[in-house]
Amino acid sequence: MSKENWFTRLTQIKPHEVLTTLLAFLFIFILMSSYNIVKNARDILPSDWGDTSRAIQWSYTFLASTIAVSIYNFFASRTSLKRLVPSAFVLFALSFLAIYTAFSLNFDGAILGKVFYCWSSVFSLFHLSVFWSYISQHHTKEQSKRLFGFINTGASLGGIIGPSIMIIFPENMQLQNVLLVTAMALLAVLPIIYILNRKYEDVEFKDDSQTKLSPNPFSGFSELITHKRLLGIAGFIFLYSGISTFFYVTQSDLLADHVKAERTELLGWLDLVTNGLTILLGIFAANRIARKFGLSTSLSIVPIVTAVLLVVLSMNPAVLLVLALQVLRKAGNYSITRPAREILYTGVDKEARFKTKPIIDVAVYRGADVFWIWTLAFLGDGFLNLGLSSKLLVGAGVAVIWGLLGIYLGRKHEKEEYESN
To answer: What pLDDT, on the 0 to 100 scale, is given for residue 260?
Structure first.
């Protein structure tokens, strides 16, 4: 058997797809390597905040996210897709350089820390949304089931390299250096985008006049309101955000007794193990689950397992158990649920992919963060004073609803795919 055939059998990537798939893999690898450096620097901050302070900060993040996607939609209405994607990464690079400059000029560190937390939280969703909008534009439904799982392992490999840099060079990777490295990494994806634009055989990119979206800057919002599939995806994101919030707050509360250096090390190891497991699942499981058992299974398996994990965690909310369950939940989400979610966008038009998708991925997600963080504050020290175990049981109920919605979205997508064939 030839090496090429062996590679194809392992990854399900056909020979003519190898170059563009590996470039997409490299693209998301660079993005996630830089992001995971930022993430570790960001995630040590909330352990020093209470429920209410955390909720206020997340409210600011939602406001910033809504403004950011609105500006993005405005420019998406006035420029070609060929220019829109690289421009988004250039602007993010410049924003991180601006924060770096502010630190260098000795602006108030406490204020800049919160600005960094807020903007890096916007970036954490926006850069992946733009990436997947771009990638899904160039893949059919059939290709997405085979390739998206493999491409997404690039994100997981980046999730290993980023934390490794933080662990190996803890003294050198202070916040200012993190900002500088992230900005340089974002600029490094520009040549990849240029090559991909040339390699993708897409008529829309050959005729610049056809690549512009609707001139209405609010069309992305109107599509979200009127499109049932997009509303379903938004609901899926809303519930996913709720589960992430339950785990995030639990993790932050249990890490509060550790000093920042210990938090950084624990979170670094958490990301390393998570992304190692994600790579294995992404290569050997994600695409096979989607093709053999269907998209409804890919979208629901992690939510149902998460519900069970939350019940288990409620019985013994110890920090090591939380981190272990976080590994299982995150690895399953990154390797199986996330690629499956992106497959749903192969069934919508480019207007929805490039304008509505960022609204869902960023504004809806961060709006859900605000809803769930205030819900947890209400359940906790804000009003009901429920214990951690009780709050985790509430989260288990949310996970069950999340799973049921995943089954519905998967079946609807597969029904439409079958009817179109």
So the answer is: 59
Distance CA 152, CA 197 (A): 19
- CA 378-246-374 angle, to 5 degrees, is 30
- Residue linked to tokens 């690629």: 339
Alpha-carbon gap, residue 175 to 173, rounded angstroms = 6
Which residue range forms the structural domain that includes residue 379? 15-202+214-420
Q: Are 71 and 169 within 8 A, CB to CB?
A: no
Alpha-carbon span 330 to 33, nearest angstrom:
16
Sequence-separated (6 or more) residues with CB below 8 Å from residue 359: 69, 73, 220, 221, 224
Residue 193 confidence (pLDDT): 93
CA–CA dist 52, 75 (Å, integer)? 35
Task: Look up the pTM and report it.
Answer: 0.75
| C-alpha dihedral, 286 to 287 to 290 to 291, nearest 10° | -150
Q: Is residue 9 included in any domain, yes or no?
A: no
Instruction: Give the SS3 label for residue 386.
Output: coil
Block means of pLDDT (10 residues each) for the chain, 421 residues, are 60 81 93 82 66 74 88 85 88 92 81 84 88 85 81 82 69 73 91 88 45 70 85 93 83 65 66 74 69 84 89 80 80 82 83 87 87 83 76 90 94 77 60
pLDDT of residue 2: 46
What's 287's domain CATH number?
Answer: 1.20.1250.20
Residue 375's contacts (CB-CB under 8 Å, 6 or more residues apart) are: 242
pLDDT of 206 reads 44
Contacts of 174 (CB under 8 A, 6+ apart): none
Contact 9, 132 (CB under 8 A): no
Determine, yes or no, domain membership for 7. Answer: no
Rounded Cα distance, 138 and 132, in Å: 10
Number of structural domains found in the chain:
1
Q: What is the pLDDT of residue 285?
A: 67
Indicate whether 316 belongs to any domain: yes
Residue at 270 is within a domain: yes
